[in-house]
Amino acid sequence: YERVETAQGIMYAPKRPGAPVIPIMDAAGKPSMGAGGGKPTEGELNASGFAQRMERAGSIISTLPAGSETSVGPAIAGAIPKIGGVSQRLAQSPEQQQYKQAADDWIRAKLRKESGAVIGEDEMRQEYITYFPQIGDSAQVRLQMAEARRVATDAMRTSAGRAYQPYVPPAAPTAPREGQESKDN
Questions:
Q1: CA 159 to chain CA mean position, Å
Q2: DSSP string spanning 34-70?
Q3: Which of 111, 109, 131, 114 is nearest to 123 (CA)?
Q4: Confidence at 35, pLDDT banded by 50, 70, 90
Q5: Global pTM?
Q6: 59 Cβ partners below 8 Å, 6+ apart?
Q7: Helix (H) or strand (E) run with residue 106 in it
Q8: How far is CA 162 from CA 139, 158, 166, in A?
Q9: Which residues share a beta bridge with 11?
Q10: Which DSSP string do the residues of 114-176 spell out, in sequence order?
């Protein structure tokens, strides 16, 4: 747990998904409001950015068609020594590439808040196995993983306290008219 000040008062926010948020009460049994004056702490500001990244990743994943997670072909291609990463990307559909990028971003946001340190390959792999479907996972396990992601994202929002702002997707870009250049070029 870590102590955070939110608009609802001071509380202990879990660092582990699934643990309850515990409000700190004053002598009268009301939520203790603290002396923060409403200004978010640095930790809340960081958590807000991480929460938005997690929400964005969830938003991307929810719009992808079923079967966008890893399949057998890309998994085998990824196991090729030295060139596995490139082989895997070449074997993935565009939707599978989007799924992987969003999953990796979700994991990095979660881990960066938890550890603040460099995220190693083994730690990334373990988190991916914990939170995102793998080949052969049952429907029940897939639902558990989705719920675990929801709980972890909610915990990040709670940690963000007063700084939390929900992720709002940008307006869809419009294609340049004939004769105009794209702003991305």
A1: 14
A2: -S-TTPPPHHHHHHHHHHHHHHHHHHHHHHSPTT-S-
A3: 111
A4: low
A5: 0.70
A6: 167, 169
A7: helix 94-115
A8: 37, 9, 12
A9: 4, 23
A10: HH-SPPPHHHHHHHHHHHS--TT--HHHHHHHHHHHHHHHHHHHHHHGGG-----PPPPPPPP
